[in-house]
Amino acid sequence: MGLEAALPVDGFMTTQLRRVIGWARRNSLWPMPFATACCGIELMATACSRFDLARFGAEVMRFSPRQSDLLIVAGRISAKMMPVLQHTYAQMPEPKWVISMGACASTGGVFDTYAVVQGCDQFIPVDVYIPGCPPRPEQLIEGVMAIQRLIDEQGLPPPGGKRKPFGIVLQPNFAPRPQPVGLTVS
Amino acid sequence: MSEATKPTLDHPNFAVLKALFPMRKFKATEFRGESTLIVEPTDLHDVLAACKNDAKLNYNFLSDVVGIDYLNYPTPMPGRFAVVYIIESFSREDRFYVKTFLNPSIPTDGIVDDPALHIRSACDLWAGAEWPEREVFDMFGIRFDGHPDLRRILTWEEFPGHPLRKDYPVRGRGERESYRMVDRTTA
Predict the structure, then answer these.
(1) Where are the domains of chain B?
(2) Which residues, other chains included, contact B186 with Cβ-Cβ below 8 Å and sequence gap of 6+?
(3) What is the CATH number of the domain that holds A142?
(4) Looking at the domain assignment, is residue A8 inside a domain?
């Protein structure tokens, strides 16, 4: 994309290998759609002809996490679904990036209930949050472009910190709180 | 109930079932053309079996099994919980509701097996009752005797509550927060 324009006539250019690899990565993101709610519909629209995510090199939606490097969490994640999402994330090969698409994936949204995780970033590292309920395809494209800017600036995702390996939550390890008293439903 | 909203109990099933079970106590109601038969919990399975097997009734399809919690319901009801079997007859194109009321004998804030919240499963009549009965068990803690596989279906196995009970707080009792939190700086 635009590389030919930067090439001099005799076909040589000097750059860093890191930038060449980053250039290849940013223009061939393979998203893993983890679509659990209405955000998934916008995700499908984004990949279709009207918005055409292929313009940004991210058209190859892979339904196997082992072939993907961009996880798009689109929709609310219930507590029972969280281990599945973590397994999906853990199966993706490095380097990998994560987009939290929409209010529900980022914060739980309006589903402030007993079963819904209030933000998937409590359990997997998230690079880009996309606001909206659901976000329009333009916003998702902006999110993918934000991932591309991240790759441009940082290359590989930075190790350590938010990127340190974490344990997989397989079973909820809960300690029930005391029952609230005085609750009436009117 | 005023005279104007008094139900018209003219569904032909009522006469058939009354003739089949002359000694049982039934109640009935009707709303916008949908008729409901209210039975005692102990009579439920017999009535459902008759609805399925009697030639005149012939309800060959179980549409759904639902639970209801009538806590703080504006109208006084015969019991705290209700279980409704929605059955359909394809040959007669008719839908019918069989309902039973249950009253808990212990506080409803836990998941302890309450002997008063037991009814007999309809899985031997309609195999399709298996999952909806599991859902009623999961959400309300009503146990179905004779069910082949009575496990939770929507929440996870160790979930410490029955969330559709009206005295269950909507944000839960800490189940969603009490997953082991992963601290990325120390994990």
Answers:
(1) 12-145
(2) none
(3) 3.40.50.12280
(4) no
CA distance B138 to B172: 15
* Spatial separation of the C-alpha atoms in residues A61 and B152, rounded to whole Å: 34
Given the structure tokens 């679509």, which residue do they identify?
Answer: A35
Domain annotation covers residue A79: yes
φ/ψ of A149, rounded to 5, equals -65, -40
Spell out a b/e string for B8-39, using b for 16 or more CB atoms within 10 Å of the CB, else e. eeebebbeebeeeeeeeeeebebeeeebbbbb
Give me the domain span that covers residue A83. Answer: 31-169
- Judging contacts by C-beta atoms under 8 Å, the chain B residues touching residue A125 are 184
- Tell me which CATH code domain B12-145 carries: 3.30.460.80
Whether the CB-CB separation of B84 and B62 falls below 8 Å is answered with no
Of A80, A117, A174, nearest to B174 by CB-CB distance is A174
In a domain, A24, yes or no: no
B158/A contact by beta carbon, under 8 A: yes
State the pTM of this model. Answer: 0.77
Exposure string over A107-131, b if 16+ CB within 10 A, otherwise e: bbbebebbbbbbbbbbbbbbbbbbe
Peptide bond before residue A95 is cis, with ω within 30 degrees of 0: yes
Pure H helices in chain B = 12-20, 44-53, 130-140
* Count of Cβ atoms closer than 10 Å to residue B59 Cβ: 27
Q: What is the pLDDT along chain B (187 residues), one digit of tens a residue?
A: 455 567 777 788 888 888 888 888 888 888 888 889 999 999 899 999 999 998 888 899 999 999 999 998 998 888 999 999 999 999 888 999 999 999 999 888 888 888 899 999 999 999 999 999 999 999 999 999 999 988 888 888 778 889 999 999 888 887 777 665 444 444 3
Question: Between helices B12-20 and B44-53, what is the axis angle to 10°?
Answer: 110
Task: From chain B, pick out residues whose CB is under 8 angstroms from the CB of A178.
Answer: 173
Q: Could you give phi then psi for residue A57, rounded to 5 degrees?
A: 75, 10
Which residues is A71 bridged to in the sheet? A32, A98
Closest chain A C-alpha to B187 CA, distance in angstroms: 6
A180 contact partners, CB below 8 Å, separation of at least 6: B169, B173
Which one of A79, A163, A180 has the shortest CB-CB distance to B176? A79
A78: in domain: yes
